[in-house]
Design a protein that fits this description.
single chain, 418 residues, two-stranded antiparallel sheet, 10 helices, 33% helix, 15% strand
Length: 418
Amino acid sequence: LVFSFGKGCISMMSCTGSIGRQYRHATREAFLGASRTRRVPAQRSRGTTVKAVANQPYGRVWNFSAGPACLPLDVLERAQDELLNWGGSGVSVMEMSHRGKEFQSIIAKTEGDLRTLLNVPDNYKILFAQGGASTQFSSIPLNLTSSQDDTVDHIVTGSWSKKAVKEAERYARVNIVASGDNKSIPPAGTWNLSEDAKYVHYCDNETIQGVEFQVPPAVGNKILVADMSSNFCSKPIDVSKFGIIYAGAQKNIGPAGVTIVIVREDLIGAARDITPTMLDYKTLADDNSLYNTPPCWSIYMCGLVFEKMLEDGGLTAVHKYNKSKAGILYDIIDQSNGFYSCPTEHSVRSLMNVPFTIPASADLEKLFIEEAAKLGMVQLKGHRSVGGMRASIYNSMPHEGVVALTEFMLEFAERHAT
């Protein structure tokens, strides 16, 4: 078994036996210094050369869940410190009135920090909605079309963009601009954009298949709508290119419960008569997302994450950090001499969700997941619709967690390669 680490990682070749030691030393030197997490003593697990993670603070594990996902430890600690008495108010954020000055200050700062992070133009509203990103599959056509006869364009690249199509078909005529094979994005030259489409919808990162747009689709002067649920705030974007950006919080920016909707102001106020009150963007926009009781705790937690991102250098720094993490993992897969395989085309590989398989044996995949869990690396099972494994390495997954996984991958391959 021979591994070669190319551009962006470590240049090295080694034979079975020595590779684990050489790689572990080189990777720690190259990457763990960049980790912003608390360092803890390593502990070896009997029968393997991979360190266990039982000595992480609070007995925590490396959580590779696709969502809800891990959150920054220092954010969780701050929330813990403020849990019983926020800001001297005498109550928890979970207990305070959403009409009171305390929560008004929380939601205002959360919105302000997000505007700064994404450089959101003044002619866009930031809404804190409920119902998850899936509810936006209905909200979007209800707000942007006037009748069932209107045409909307959808680019399909995986499971979530397919679900958006099914819901949009309830309210409008759907034109499939392009349909991918779950591992690539069809070339733009093959797309069939409608001349009269009310908008063009796409999913910027397919959580299940690990397919990510490297740049937004070029759709001319049409209204571009993006589902960014699984890569929101993972990289800088030009908000002015979009009519609507929406994202569930539970991947990159906070706990489940709140959905961020960034919508251009001229797209608000023309919802269809059949639109439920809480799905009408004007309802939220007119009352600063406080028409009814919002998910106060989730908004507060997002605010803590946004504040941390700004302190850590903003989205340019976040993106650089994410690229280096993903580079480690993809290099291990690609240079495994076929032991591991990633089905996603290289040019559209996600920095957030890394699916991979062991082509030789489904039984080995099951064993891999079981052994990884015993070492404190959990939620690596692939989505039930595709199988295999999937490592979700969102913003809050530190380098150290990715390195722990790749160390185990190397050791597992050395034991089972034929």
